[in-house]
Amino acid sequence: MYQASDIAFCASVIKPESDNELNLLCFVHFRTISAQSEYRAR
Fold it and tell me: Where on the tree of life does the source sit, at the highest rank (predicted)?
């Protein structure tokens, strides 16, 4: 499970103008979380 601090950290790191590795990692991380949440909700 993820922590609120993870969300805050990724939100502070992800900037639209930059596409660094951390952005990608956070994007994948949150895509995984949302996919798991949707799966549980069914």
Answer: Bacteria
**Distance (Å, whole) CA 40 – CA 42:** 6
The structure's pTM equals 0.38
26: left (phi over 0), alpha (psi -120 to 50) or beta: alpha
3-class DSSP state of 32: helix
Residue pLDDT tens, the chain, 42 long: 556 677 677 667 666 555 566 667 777 877 887 777 777 777
